[in-house]
Specification:
heterodimer, A: 296 residues, MetI-like fold, B: 265 residues, alpha/beta, 6-stranded mixed β-sheet, 4-stranded antiparallel β-sheet, 24% strand, globular, transmembrane helix (chain A)
Chain lengths: 296, 265
């Protein structure tokens, strides 16, 4: 009898509870939603804003004496106001807004990095697939990847006899190594079962590459691409300082030669923000492409 | 009449670092078309290796696998495998997973509409049509295995090879899937070879049970025919004398004559 009654109360209690919970969350969500979004935005934006403010104040105090060698933020704002406020002006061949310069540098990165991504994934797949290719190529890659970007520049200038292809080559050679190495690791980690599925279906090399290898190794490939695009952005700014042209790197060099320090500082901010956006862009592309891949 | 599938004096040994380890020795077995054969044995006895040999995923060291009198030594869709851990590609939906197989096997012979119909028919067969747009991560283990079976069936194989297909599932789900496989076997009349270490499962599903001795150099110890009429119902069989006799025979083989010796590992 007592067991019966216990079971009864349990049975009664069960359907009531979830119903309450569901109603509560539904109400709660509708009410809190805008507030929650505001709170989340605030937690994301307020701390960096405070830090930036503090840094600006310290910088202003540190550089406001007349003997300071670097300009304080107020001077940067006043002297480089045109660059800050009008990123898209165009007054002739060498007098263009910073956004145009960044776009020109980005275009170079797009070409150089695009080639590096294509060749890197293909080479990485080869190295990951074949034990002998790995034994032969891996030591070479490991040595070459430590060569700093600019060390390639004289050689590529000699080979291409032109500054633009040389800059592209420097981007290519800088960013290809992490793509190759990460792709190879990803390919080596493809589960044996996926390979068996491909073998039973008699997929040919190309079908295996497109349908199994690339999606299975995608998380690794995108890690490589993310490192690679960061490196190529580092490389292009440095390469442009030496090769000239209209990119943002050359702008800094030019500003230095004509002692326009505020311009350099504005350009640095542009470069930093652009690099950050590039990194996030590749990360977002990776998250989009590999959705569902990582979960088993 | 020659056998449908013939395992002809197969030896298999692996060489690793100069050390030869003999896994299978002198495997002789013939299987008729439409037969359901289980291979049972203790873990490490090489039963998965045997299945891989039939699938062509591993090459035999000596002897041959003959399917309709033709030697097979490489994998192909006519010997489809249902893997223990389903092996669905996680970036494809259920439908796309099966489509990968169907478009490869029937890309030339079936039109797009026919292929779609064929995919849906195989999904219906395992009662998974409702989840065709889900990804493997969004469905349960039993459902994944159903899709794995559908993918294998969609290749229209001459032989369906099941590698401990229900090993990773809970008892209730396993029973459901065993019934599903029995139903499919009855409807399609396909030839199936299943690796298992579950005695009840082997007796319930099989026409014959192949019992393997312990390794190294394992071989077929005994082959037991299961003379139970089909369709079989697990509840009725629970007290059936033939069922119990077969069950006892397998248990005696596994736990009396070929007891698993831990030291052998």
């Amino acid at each position: 009898m007592s067991i019966q009654s216990v079971e009864d109360t349990k049975v009664k209690a069960f359907p009531v509870k979830p119903a309450e919970v569901i109603a509560f969350t539904a109400k709660a969500r509708r009410r809190i939603s805008p507030l929650a979004i505001a709170r989340r935005l605030a937690t994301a934006l307020v701390p960096p804003a405070v830090v930036i403010l503090i840094l600006l104040v310290v910088w202003q105090l540190a550089c406001s004496s007349p003997t300071a060698s670097l300009p304080p933020p107020s001077q940067v704002w006043n002297e480089a106001y045109d660059l800050i406020a009008h990123p898209f002006f165009d007054n002739g061949p060498q007098d263009i807004g910073l956004a145009w310069r960044v776009l020109i540098s980005l275009q170079r990165v797009a070409i150089g990095f695009g080639m590096a991504a294509a060749v890197g994934v293909a080479l990485g797949a080869l190295v990951g697939q074949s034990v002998w290719a790995m034994r032969g190529l891996d030591p070479v890659f490991q040595i070459l990847r430590t060569v700093p970007p600019l060390a390639w520049l004289p050689l590529s200038l000699a080979a291409f006899r032109d500054s633009n292809p040389s800059a592209l080559f420097v981007i290519f050679i800088t960013s290809i190594w992490p793509v190759i190495i990460n792709t190879a690791v990803g390919v080596r980690n493809i589960p044996e079962d996926y390979r068996n599925v491909a073998r039973i279906l008699r997929l040919n090399q190309l079908e295996f590459f497109i349908k199994i290898m690339v999606p299975a190794a995608a998380p690794y490939i995108f890690t490589g691409l993310r490192i690679g695009i960061g490196l190529s952005w580092l490389a292009i700014v440095a390469a442009e300082m030496l090769t000239g042209g209209v990119g943002v790197g050359f702008f800094i060099w030019d500003a230095w030669n004509s002692s326009r320090l505020p311009d350099i500082i504005v350009a640095l901010v542009y470069i930093g923000v652009t690099g950050f956006c590039l990194d996030r862009l590749v990360a977002a592309a990776g998250a989009f492409v590999t959705r569902g891949t990582t979960a088993k | 009449m020659t056998a449908y599938l013939k395992l002809d004096h197969i030896d298999k040994s692996f060489v690793r670092g100069g050390q030869v380890s003999e896994v299978l020795r002198d495997i002789r077995l013939t299987i008729d078309a439409g037969e359901f054969v289980s291979i049972i044995g203790h873990s490490g006895c090489g039963k998965s290796t045997l299945l891989n040999l039939i699938a062509g995923l591993t090459k035999v060291s000596k002897g041959a696998v003959l399917l309709e009198d033709k030697e097979v030594d490489s994998p192909g869709p006519e010997r489809a495998v249902v893997f223990q851990n389903h092996s669905l590609l996680p970036w494809l939906t259920v439908y796309e997973n099966i489509n990968l197989a169907v478009s490869k096997v029937f890309g030339r012979t079936k039109s797009r509409a026919e292929r779609h119909g064929w995919i849906m028919r195989n999904l219906d067969l395992v009662q998974m049509a409702h989840a065709k747009d889900k990804r493997p991560a969004e469905i349960s283990g039993g459902m994944k295995q159903r899709v794995g079976i559908a993918r294998a069936l969609a290749m229209e194989p001459k032989i369906l090879l099941l590698d401990e297909p229900f090993g990773a599932l809970d008892a209730l789900t396993r029973a459901h899937l065993q019934d599903a496989v029995m139903d499919i076997h009855a409807r399609l009349g396909s030839t199936m070879i299943m690796i298992t270490h579950d005695v009840d499962e082997a007796v319930l599903l099989s026409d014959r049970i192949v019992m393997m001795t312990n390794g190294p150099a394992a071989t077929i110890g005994e082959v037991l025919s299961v003379p139970l009429a089909r369709p079989r119902r697990r509840i009725e069989l629970a007290s059936d004398r033939t069922f119990l006799r077969c069950r006892e025979a397998v248990l005696k083989f596994l736990y009396e004559r070929h007891r698993f010796v831990e030291a052998a590992q």
